[in-house]
Amino acid sequence: MSTRQISPKDFDYSKLRGKITERFGNQRAFGKFLGKSDTYVTRYLTGLSEFSQSIIFFWAEALKIEPTEFNEYFFCLKS
Questions:
Q1: What pLDDT is recorded for position 13?
Q2: How far is CA 35 from the centre of its chain?
Q3: pLDDT (0 to 100) of residue 66
Q4: Can you name the residues that pair with 77 across neighbouring β-strands?
């Protein structure tokens, strides 16, 4: 039996992108709100950077995502 390690690029962040657009209009505005660049945001949404627990909570607070919804936004695997 072979097991494959999951990478950040295996996750579908389309719902998270939608939430960013809904709350902030675009990734640049969200990045600015966080005190970061839009490149910072893009790196996470494209899987180039891996979400840590603290980043998940930081983003969730800014986006008004409840902990019970984390799976929908941060842990949805691509089909």
A1: 97
A2: 16
A3: 98
A4: 11
